[in-house]
Specification:
Length: 292
Amino acid sequence: MTMREGKLETKNGKIWYAAYGEKRRKTPVLVVHGGPGFLSMTDGLDFLWQDRPVYFYDQLGCGRSDRAFDKRFYSVANYIEELAQVRAGLHLDDVYLMGFSWGCALVCAYLLERRPAGVHGVMLCAPLISSPAWQEDQRANIARMPADLREAIAAGEASGDFGDAYRRAMLAYYERHVCLLSPWPVSLETAFSRLSLEVYNTLWGPSEFTVTGKLRDFDLAPRLSSIGEPVLLTCGDRDEAGVKTVKDFQERFPRARLAVIPQASHLHQIERPQIFAAVVRDFLDDLESGPR
C-alpha cells in the first residue's frame, strides 16, 4: 500500500502527516496519537487502510512536526485548534476519529468544544479522559508492585529526584502496564527514543504515574454525556487505563460500547492486533450497515 506524506501549514508551524489507502472509498479515519509528546505509529492498524483512507499526523512539538517557539504553546486549547486545522487541511469533511491514550482526551475535548459536523464515529483506545481517575488507577497498579519498586517511586516523588532508582521502577511499571511484549518492537523503542520531553513534561510529568504538568486536574468525565457520536472504547485487561474506569466512561456516553482485550496492556493494538482489528471492524461495519 502506497503511503503519501507531507507537511500542513498551520498558524503555529508545519504539521507532518501521512496518508494510506487514499484511493479507497469508505469513510476515512484520522488517527490522533498519544503522549502527550509521543508520535504517530501505524503498528497494528494496517487493517484499516484495506478498505478506507487512514491519516496520521504528529502534533506540534512531536515526531516529524515543527516545535513551538515557546513551550507555553502546549495546551489543550491549542491542540484542539490544531486538530481542527489538520482535519480541514486534509479535507476530511466526513471522518471517523481514532484516539490513543492522550489522543482520546484531545478527541473528546475537540468534540465538546467545537461540536464539529461530519464526525460519524469515535474510537477511543486506552483512553485518558480524566487525569484524577488515571492517577487513581496508577496508584492501584503501583500498590501491587514489589516493595523496593514502590519505595523507589515514593522516594523520587517525595524528593523530586527522578534518577536511576526511579527510572528502574518506571521501566518495570511500563513492562507491566504499557507494553507486555518482550522485547519491545523496534518501532516502539524508536518511538520512545523520540518522545518529546518538552511536551510530555509540560503537559504531563516525569512518568505515566507521576503527574505534575498542566493536565494534572484535566477531567472530561462529567461532560461525556454531551458527546452524541457513536463511541467504541478499548482497553487491555492490564492497561494503565483501568478496566473499571473505562467502563465508567462507557456508561457516561449516550452511545458507546466497550471491548476489553485479554492479556494486553496500554498498547493492546500492538500486543493483540487480530483481536483489536476484529473489534474495530465490527464497530465500523455496524455503523456503515445501519441498524441491525
